[in-house]
Amino acid sequence: MKKKGFFKDPMNLLEFSRFFPKKSGKTGKPPGTVQYLGKKRIEDVTINIATYDYLEYFEKTTKDVNEIKKYINKKKMLWINVNGVHKTEIIEKIGEIFKLHPLLLEDIANVDQRPKIEYYDDLIFVIFKIFSFNETKKTLTSEQISLIIGKNFVLSFQENDKDDFDIIRNRLKKSGNKIRKLGSDYLMYTLMDYIIDSYFIVLENIGEYIEQVEQDTIFNPSIKTQNEIYSLKRELILLRKSVWPLREVLSSLQRENNKLISKEILFFLRDIYDHTIQIIDTVETFRDMLSGMLDLYLSNVSNKMNEVMKILTVIATIFIPLTFIVGIYGMNFRYMPELEIWWFYPSLWGVMVGVALLMFFAFKKKGWV
Amino acid sequence: MKKKGFFKDPMNLLEFSRFFPKKSGKTGKPPGTVQYLGKKRIEDVTINIATYDYLEYFEKTTKDVNEIKKYINKKKMLWINVNGVHKTEIIEKIGEIFKLHPLLLEDIANVDQRPKIEYYDDLIFVIFKIFSFNETKKTLTSEQISLIIGKNFVLSFQENDKDDFDIIRNRLKKSGNKIRKLGSDYLMYTLMDYIIDSYFIVLENIGEYIEQVEQDTIFNPSIKTQNEIYSLKRELILLRKSVWPLREVLSSLQRENNKLISKEILFFLRDIYDHTIQIIDTVETFRDMLSGMLDLYLSNVSNKMNEVMKILTVIATIFIPLTFIVGIYGMNFRYMPELEIWWFYPSLWGVMVGVALLMFFAFKKKGWV
Amino acid sequence: MKKKGFFKDPMNLLEFSRFFPKKSGKTGKPPGTVQYLGKKRIEDVTINIATYDYLEYFEKTTKDVNEIKKYINKKKMLWINVNGVHKTEIIEKIGEIFKLHPLLLEDIANVDQRPKIEYYDDLIFVIFKIFSFNETKKTLTSEQISLIIGKNFVLSFQENDKDDFDIIRNRLKKSGNKIRKLGSDYLMYTLMDYIIDSYFIVLENIGEYIEQVEQDTIFNPSIKTQNEIYSLKRELILLRKSVWPLREVLSSLQRENNKLISKEILFFLRDIYDHTIQIIDTVETFRDMLSGMLDLYLSNVSNKMNEVMKILTVIATIFIPLTFIVGIYGMNFRYMPELEIWWFYPSLWGVMVGVALLMFFAFKKKGWV
Amino acid sequence: MKKKGFFKDPMNLLEFSRFFPKKSGKTGKPPGTVQYLGKKRIEDVTINIATYDYLEYFEKTTKDVNEIKKYINKKKMLWINVNGVHKTEIIEKIGEIFKLHPLLLEDIANVDQRPKIEYYDDLIFVIFKIFSFNETKKTLTSEQISLIIGKNFVLSFQENDKDDFDIIRNRLKKSGNKIRKLGSDYLMYTLMDYIIDSYFIVLENIGEYIEQVEQDTIFNPSIKTQNEIYSLKRELILLRKSVWPLREVLSSLQRENNKLISKEILFFLRDIYDHTIQIIDTVETFRDMLSGMLDLYLSNVSNKMNEVMKILTVIATIFIPLTFIVGIYGMNFRYMPELEIWWFYPSLWGVMVGVALLMFFAFKKKGWV
Amino acid sequence: MKKKGFFKDPMNLLEFSRFFPKKSGKTGKPPGTVQYLGKKRIEDVTINIATYDYLEYFEKTTKDVNEIKKYINKKKMLWINVNGVHKTEIIEKIGEIFKLHPLLLEDIANVDQRPKIEYYDDLIFVIFKIFSFNETKKTLTSEQISLIIGKNFVLSFQENDKDDFDIIRNRLKKSGNKIRKLGSDYLMYTLMDYIIDSYFIVLENIGEYIEQVEQDTIFNPSIKTQNEIYSLKRELILLRKSVWPLREVLSSLQRENNKLISKEILFFLRDIYDHTIQIIDTVETFRDMLSGMLDLYLSNVSNKMNEVMKILTVIATIFIPLTFIVGIYGMNFRYMPELEIWWFYPSLWGVMVGVALLMFFAFKKKGWV
User: Fold this and answer.
1) Among candidates B182, B181, B278, B290, which has minimal Cα distance to B234?
2) Which residues contact D326 (CB under 8 A, 6 or more apart)?
3) How far is E368 from E316, CA to CA, in rounded Å?
4) pTM listed for this prediction
5) Radius of gyration over alpha carbons of chain B, in Å?
6) Is residue A191 part of a domain?
7) Is residue D7 part of a domain?
8) Does E257 touch chain D (CB under 8 A)?
9) Which of D206, D232, D328, D340 to mutate to test the interface with E (most CBs of E within 10 A)?
10) Pick from B299, B324, B357: which residue ends a domain?
């Protein structure tokens, strides 16, 4: 049997590996081994260093991790953003500079993590996922973002070299801004708010696609529709795996009475906590709707089959008896008196038309025609 | 393939956007930006100002937000009702007058919120949804209502210019009324009670429509029925998203020992808390029933197919063998002794009628005819 | 298309209104408005007054609510039982005599309540539902019972004029009975025990009906069976809505350290709490079984269709080729040598019988015949 | 329509009454009425009395309940085992001797109880179910076991006259045994351990039966298989109703700091608590597997139907056009030039064989043949 | 009916016994009886003894359990690893040496345990399962690992003679390693980390297999696919039963303030706790996806049936009327004027081709051809 080709481009099914963590390369290694486990990457890792207080702002992009040391200054806020975690020596070096726990470094490099929050003595460590929806392939791609918040510094690690935080750096540049007045907790909040807002865009994209698929399900159901529903369900499983833990992270941040989080920031955290609930709500709504759409699709397939059966039955039921009748007078018996009667043939036509009409109206009454 | 036109008016499917929040216009903006994200509106925003104590009642409708200041008076209750949140400068001005937190103002303008409650130092902030069921299009429309309760004032914001609270203002006008004796907490309760009562009307409307669809499912199942069930399920998903948080809001109001809520009002809040539970119960009951109706519909489709198959089988099974028999004596062999026997033709008729009757009774016994 | 008449008596589907509360007549009225919202009733409301202590018992039935005042006596237990809540003036009068909260009176008259318990300063207010199963129509009817327990009085309100509590009054009459020795809490327990026992009877009735439907599903599945399963599921949704809150009510009564409940009674309440759990268990079991029965029914429909298809296929597959063969020798070609051979016709019979037998045995092997 | 006889022995469906409590005989009776509600029984009730301490062991079987009094002795352990609860006067007599609460006696006689634990001042009262799986009828039978644990006595009541605890008495007889050294709590534990172990045997029996049904579902699906799956699901509903409460009972025994339970016994109770979790796990696993098996069965039915349809389609599609062709040359037109051509008949054979082969290979390519 | 042979090798279905505990051989035996209940094994049991401190490391493999005593030394860490639990006398001997509770020994030998943790006075006792996925038979095999952690010793018991912990012994050999510096808690953590990492490998194997089955479901659905989905669901039930308790075990280890666990180790335990959550997440994701795949498979079966029906209907609908037409002119009436007209036969051909084309285009428009 040849491939049915239900999907034009079967490529979007080959990314099944997004659904499970891949640690086989790591088993048996001692804990705390910093090892990159994601897709192979060869790009250079760039480091953005931003240091600021209410009066001044300074920014630099470098590839040399050792430059960081120069900017450590207890009086100013320091934000290090690292684009790329596939060069583990850079992560290890940063770990050394800021005295980070080896398990924390391991988690940064391992990009198959689930969103989570961990409290160390004088640090908060958060892992988030950021998603983008590929409009053509209709698949989600995720990127892992790790944040480390200390007394007067924030470290952020992104999986790829596309810098997501430019917009925030621009806001930082403008003096007199709230973000320049407040500490590392407000910078953390700003980054989180940005990350969580990005989910709304993904949800809008998916929502618009679901709308399209729903139209197809109702007006034009085909095998393509079925595969689209299946594929959407699959992507939502992926999304869902990342959004539920978001809620735990933010709820923990609010409850935990951490000294790094000032009271004023709690209001803002409550706000993004509400956003995560809204995101979860929407994901669950989408899942619910897709289930409904699958039911509708299957019901439509049944209805179509029913329609096909009815046509077959109407045709067969009308013509099979008529064919029998004409068969009778095709017999070659010598003694068939009807054959000799001149009005028998036209009358037979009358009978046959009558039978056909009778059946037709019977079917009409049953609503089959 | 042309559109099947399952719905007469496909318009009611175009409102899919009700199912997810649309924030893409906002991403990247700093938190606390007051921005309207709902449907485009051009109506003027009107402001109802009501100020009263046990002895006096005064009411005014204006379009000038600055008039509010004149009526602030610590000794009297003040109720400001704003019809329309699409002019954000009005919200910002009110925020300035009453010293409201910027995140709170942001939430008022963003009409894609989930119902929620927030406690500020000397304020309670509540967001509700009010629904109406369009009897023709069989769809729900929601409007967001925000309430801010302070020591001696209540602010209410409605999404559209249709004033929902006229009936309560009328009650306020009558002197000697309970509502005139008690403070802002009782006014808040009255507004909430009104909002929650409106759900019962929506539920009655939906209930009556479900009853109608149920009748169709049982006595007259068609593709229209299936689409109605699907569409009802869809609307209930929307409703459900808003009623579950209602319960949290009211349960929080009762538990939280807020100084703005006097003990006497707690009894009343318990009463509307009970109402929200009843609403949730009913929504869940409706969902349960619709699932049952879908099962019933599908079962009916199967039964119909079965019926169609039986008719086809009965007709085909009776006539196919007979057609074979008459086919035999239509053969042109020179040596077919039966053809010469004069009683063979009438006997054949006998045989054929016999076979047909036999089969008919066999099917009768199987219950197919 | 004409009505298929799946139900002989479609009346039992017209009671859909049992599934949602009907408050539309009430919206906009101030809270605390006592208004009857149930079925229209014209019967008179009768009031049973019973007053007793360990030594004496006195009972009276009246229609005049003012008579109650005469029997208020701090030293004796007083039990007022009101049959009918559609005359709200009676409820209001009683509320006045016993100084009841207006919201409580509102709840008594509104018979669409969910079972609940409320604690007032020196009162306990409980709402229950009592069910009866109509054996003919196979539907449930519910009646709302409200109980108010005070220091030395119990007030009970029944929705209709059928007095459910006769049996308890008879027990009261007998002196030396436990019920005469103990206070209002034991009377409350006795009434609750009676109400909850009535659920077991309803469950037995439904259980016996389910058994019957199960037999039909297995031995005699038809569209009637399907509708019975659907209708049973529907009734269980109704029942379930009332039994889950029962558990909350009784669990609250046990936990709450209310001064009206003496320690001795707690043992008895634990007993009826266990009963409610058993009731819930049984309702859930019934639901589970009905789901299983629906699956079984659908599977049987599939099996039947399969059987029909097999017969059609067997007949068609045997005769269609034979009809083709006889068709060949019905052709009128001048040069068909077979037609002239005398043994060809009998041999053809042999061939045809052979083909038919061969096919028959092939189907036999496949298990289709 | 005659009975289809899906089950050879329909008897095992008549025990539906196992699924709901039957209390109708009791409604309206005052609480504390000791009444037997199980199957009618006429056997005598026998009483095993065992009294022991570390040095001595004495055992007696009697039918006279008054003999118990002779063996009450504060210094020795006393174990009374009653086989049969249908003679309520015996239960009432024992209640009198040991001063048991009337509700407790009521629960012993009412064999439709759910497993539960209750703490009285100086007693623990436990109700368990013991199951046995009838290998022939494939149904479960349950028996209710009630245990009362006091300071130095244990009372056990069994529903039928089959003595389940012989094996434990034998262990008691042997001196130097742990059970002889320790108090009533260890005897209670031993009895519970015995009861819970009996569940594992039932699970093994059911497991082996499920394995058999699974084999049938895969290799030999028939209506019998479907009914077996349904019937197994039904029995598991029954089992499940009894095993979930077991867990609550044992968890409560561990948490509750009851003075009758010594600290040493807690270790043992944790052990049987683990067993109940394993039992629940297994029951849920079985349910999961049966759902999967039902899906598989239905999928197999669909596949079979598909196979049937394919054969019908292949045969009909090949022969219907051929029959049409031979029909053409059976027409009796005077002017049909083909009929006169000598090579037309053999060529027609060629054409027909060609068409048939073409179709056959088309179907082969589609994978239908 | 012969076996359909859906599975090439039906062997992988015979291991149903993995799904329930088998304790029937044990019922009635007193608690604390050490009895092996797993598969029959005849291999010798080997014992690895490792004793080390920061400076020295010594290792020995023996079959004589009495050798253990020689190495007990309060100053050094001792790790005993026992390969095989089927010789209960060895377990009992070790129990004697380390004074272990009899119930603990019973649990080690009973390899049908659920993962669990138990705290004894100066011991922690943990049971884990380790899985391996057989790539050929596509089934999971589990092995039970018991760990006992004392002040300065760790005992580990493996079910079979394949030594899983070689890799850790190699790490121990290297001096200067973290594992050599820290106590029994870190060794415990290392073993647990190793065990939990092994789950990721199993998940990768299963994930790759699911990917393959998904491809089949979409491009090449057959009965084999259905059986693979069923079989995968079955294996995931098994896996799930073991991974959920893992989480409880690790969460308990973190919460419980056990003196054997130093504060530093808690960070590491949190890390593997996160891993167990990820494992659970993945197992649940797999289950979700398999449900979706089953739906897709069934939908594909329906679609195929639909396609088959359409072909049958098209062929039958086109040819049945044509066959009727040719039947008419095969009749032998003497007075059929058409038969005599020379242009009637060719015109009939025209009519028939016309009818066929008309129908063909009607079907084309319906999208059936």
Assistant:
1) B290
2) C324, C327, C328, C330, C331, D352
3) 13
4) 0.87
5) 34
6) yes
7) no
8) no
9) D328
10) B299
- 10 Å CB burial of residue D185 (0-12, 13-18, 19+) is buried
Q: Are A62 and A47 in contact (CB under 8 A)?
A: yes
B367/D contact by beta carbon, under 8 A: yes
* pLDDT one digit per residue (tens) for chain D, 369 residues: 334 444 444 445 557 788 888 776 666 677 778 888 778 888 889 999 999 988 889 999 999 999 999 898 878 899 999 999 999 999 999 999 999 998 999 999 988 889 999 999 889 999 999 999 988 888 898 999 999 999 989 999 999 877 788 888 888 888 777 888 888 999 999 999 999 999 999 999 999 999 999 988 988 888 889 999 999 999 999 999 999 999 999 999 988 888 899 988 988 999 999 999 999 999 999 999 999 999 999 998 888 888 888 888 888 889 999 999 999 988 888 888 888 888 888 999 999 999 999 989 988 888 777
| E310 shares its domain with E293 | no
CA B177 from centre of chain: 35
**What part of C 83-122 touches B (C-beta under 8 Å)?**
101, 103, 107, 112-114, 116, 118
E290 with E309, same domain: the answer is: no
| Cα of B116 vs its chain's centroid, Å | 19
- In this structure, the strands spanning C46-52 and A153-158 are unpaired
Say which of A22, A241, A329 has its CB closest to residue E204.
Answer: A22
Residue B338 makes CB contacts below 8 A (sequence gap 6+) with: A333, B329, B344
Residues D221 and D326 in one domain: no
User: Residue D11: inside a domain, yes or no?
Assistant: no
Note whether B163 contacts C: Cβ–Cβ < 8 A.
no
E275 and E320 both lie in a single domain:
no
Pair A126, A170 in one domain: yes
The 3-state DSSP class for residue C299 equals helix
| C4: nearest CA partner in chain A | A366
Contacts of D107 in chain C (CB under 8 A): 271
Q: Structurally, how many domains does chain C consist of?
A: 2
CB atoms within 10 A of CB E208: 15
Torsion angle defined by CA atoms of residues A89, A91, A92 and A93, in that order, rounded to the nearest 10 degrees:
90
Residue D251 token pair: 């968890």
Same domain? D149 vs D166? yes
- State the CATH number of the domain containing residue E107: 3.30.460.20
Separation of first and last alpha carbons in chain D = 37
Nearest-by-Cβ selection for C323 from B177, B278, B323? B323
Question: Which of B137, B138, B301, B133 has the alpha carbon at shortest distance from B217?
Answer: B301
Kindly state whether residues E112 and E161 are assigned to the same domain.
yes
Q: B330 at the D interface (CB within 8 A)?
A: yes
Residues E150 and E258 in one domain: yes
Chains that touch E (3 or more CB pairs under 8 A): A, B, C, D
Of B248, B274, B299, at which residue does a domain stop? Answer: B299
Neighbours of D112 (CB within 10 A): 17
CATH number for the domain including B321? 1.20.58.340
Calpha distance D66→D200 (Å, rounded): 37
Report d(CA C355, CA B324) in Å as an integer. Answer: 14
Q: Which amino acid is at A220?
A: N
| Within a domain: A18 | no
Range of the domain at A348: 306-366
The shortest CB-CB distance from D317 to any of E226, E298, E311 is to E311
Residue A293 to residue B230: CA distance in whole angstroms: 8
Look at residue E182 and give its three-state secondary structure.
coil
Chain B residue with the nearest C-alpha to that of E368: B1
Residues of D in contact with B366 (CB under 8 A): 1
Residues C195 and B366: their CA atoms lie apart, in Å, by 48
Cβ pair E344, D333 in contact under 8 A: yes
Chain B residues with CB under 8 Å of C241 CB are: 281, 285
